[in-house]
Amino acid sequence: MTQSLDLLSLRSVSKSYGPVPVLHDIDLSIRDGEFLTVLGPSGSGKTTVLRLIGGLETVTSGEIHLDGRDISRMPINRRPFNTVFQDYALFPHMTVAANVGYGLSVRRRPRAEIKRRTDEALDLVQLGSFSDRFPAQLSGGQRQRVALARALICQPRLILLDEPLAALDLELRRRMQEFLKSIQREIKTTFLFVTHDQEEAIGMADRICVMQAGRIRQLGTPHELYYKPSCEFVARFFGDNNLVPGTLGAIDGDYRAIDTAFGRLLCAMNGQQNLRSAAAGTQAFAVFRPEALGTVNEKDSGNALCGNVKELVFAGSSTVAHIDAGDQRLRMRLASLAEGSIYSQGERVKLTFSPRDSHLVLS
Ligand code: ADP
Ligand code: MG
Question: Which of 94, 101, 244, 356 is the most buried (most CB within 10 A)?
Fold first, then answer.
């Protein structure tokens, strides 16, 4: 069996616009058939990554390989990729069928083939009966499905999607997320999906590549990013972790002590070598999720934190207690409002978390 299942790889890719560097030394491999999401705040370089792959921009240095061959300078129309944009970019004066079949007509495919493949693509996105409509006669979600059908019809090796759902309202966006994911599973085409929405990324991706300021901060499964963030940025970006600063102390098996304003805490290293090899005294953060925090029982020993209840925030299925402790603000998630009501504002509480439900990141 061949080792390389990579479809596309970026190798030390950097990009500058004029004198301004926007991507720094990006190494990224996209596996054949996967749903890979690029996640990062606005301005982190996500669109630039897609434009380089798509051929709308050229790399300043580094290489882009497809099936192991350098395509960095391949013209855009020869790259076997298609892009779906946020604003759909449909032709307003053309019917749905003409929009979807456009890529095949410019390739001068026979009329019967265009018709057949257009029908297939429209069926796939469940718009079979909309072929004679114009874009203005469609809802936002339907337009996005037309844009997807138009991208799929040329059977690209890779579909590039640049925040395609950002213009849709929340309910429709959730439905489209499921829809996109099910289509991707069905046709097994590789999707590279850009978003700034971490919930969207967690729900759809096989793997997520987190970007910040033109650099890749972490690449991993949603589960890995959620439970084992490799740096402060990812720990803060993903969900609502508590981060308590401190300095690293002694190693105890799979755990390591960290000295914080709350005293000494014990946290899991979760197999991360950089935590094991860091010298004692290195600045780091204890990381634990709000649901890992609980009130101390008599028999609890170990990680102990004290603070005052600042406020209780109703969050639907749970209630979040905000705890002030010196200059730290901690969040503790309680399973219900009833559980929340045992605390009163200003009350002093003693809290704990299990080392097993914690993590460390270097600062
Ligand atoms: P994202 O998609 O993550 O929001 P972009 O890739 O669009 O980020 O942009 C990354 C950085 O590059 C930003 O600082 C942006 O201002 C800059 N940039 C993007 N396109 C251009 C351009 N054509 N010319 C100059 N600067 C650009
Ligand atoms: Mg963008």
Answer: 101
